[in-house]
Specification:
There is one protein chain. By secondary structure, the protein is an alpha+beta fold. The protein has one domain (24-249). It is built from three helices and 14 strands. The chain has helices at residues 3-20, 36-42, 142-145; strands at residues 48-51, 55-60, 98-103, 121-123, 128-129, 133-134, 138-139, 153-155, 161-163, 177-181, 186-188, 205-208, 217-221, 247-248. A hairpin with a 3-residue loop joins strand 6 and strand 7 (138-139). It is globular and about 45 Å long. The chain binds zinc ion (2 copies). Residues 192, 198, 206, 208, 219, 221 line the site of one zinc ion.
Length: 249
């Protein structure tokens, strides 16, 4: 590929990302850490990973690999609700056709766009990650949380199963890699690799080494706040550190 064609390709990619997301201001700098190898090796449960070199497209059906009552009684992966369960109006989940596009080398954004309702990232098993908001863009309340299974998850009106918080099959009180957010940065459990609780910035992350990135990378952590004293810990609230890519259904 000569330089002119390469330039055109890059220009068209920038134009594309801007037209899809006019609210954010993309930075032109490039991150130093390439996440491609880790992404390719860590996602499972049928998630496909396609890499172009500069971006990565992850496709999943959004169904968990683990037990949840939302599989329905009789399913091999059915398990009961936590004891505080309160009837959920959305009682079942179905498969979807999700595609998340993230950059291979995530970088800090100058705009720090707010996360919004809907998928803000993808867990390693292909289940969407949501923030601390529910329909109407209100913060999760105690009643909504009683619709959660042991994984801090439930389906929305579109029967779309998603994680809001830490849980039994993703991360509890550990340094597990949970997934990647739409800005390409990884998200971990409440602890760092050395077993300590890190001090986080306003975006819920910090730069440091992880088990997957021994050279160091900016990464998010689940909140270390026992949310409304429910025993659940919100995975991610507030703004992105980097520039979000697309998440389509
Ligand atoms: Zn929800
Ligand atoms: Zn950390």
């Amino acid at each position: 590929m000569n330089k002119t064609i390469l330039g055109l390709v890059i220009l068209s990619q920038i134009a594309c990302s801007k037209s899809e997301d006019t609210a954010s201001t993309s930075t032109t700098t490039t991150g130093t850490v390439d996440i491609t190898t880790v992404v390719q090796s860590k996602f499972f449960n049928g998630v496909t990973v396609a890499s172009s070199g500069t971006s990565i497209v992850l496709k999943s059906n959004g169904l968990p690999d683990h037990k949840t009552p939302y599989w329905g009684v009789g399913n091999a992966l059915y398990e009961d609700f936590p004891t505080n369960y309160h009837a959920n109006v959305n009682t079942s989940m179905t498969s979807h056709t999700y595609a998340m596009t993230i950059v291979a080398k995530p970088v800090v954004s100058t705009s720090h766009e707010e996360t919004t309702l809907g998928a803000i990232g993808m867990a390693l098993n292909g289940v969407p990650i949501y923030n601390d908001r529910e329909g109407g863009n209100v913060a999760l309340d105690a009643l909504t949380i009683t619709t959660f299974d042991y994984s801090g998850a439930h389906p929305g009106p579109g029967k779309d199963y998603h994680y809001h918080t830490t849980g039994r099959y993703t991360t509890t009180d550990d340094a597990n890699l949970v997934g990647f957010l739409r800005d390409g940065f990884p998200i971990y459990g409440r602890k760092d690799k050395d077993g300590t609780y890190p001090t986080l910035d306003t975006y819920g992350g910090h730069t440091g080494i992880t088990a997957d990135f021994p050279e160091g990378i900016y990464h998010y952590h689940a909140s270390n706040v026992n949310y409304l004293n429910t025993g659940y810990y919100v995975l991610k609230a507030g703004s992105y550190y980097g520039t979000k890519g697309t998440f389509t259904e």
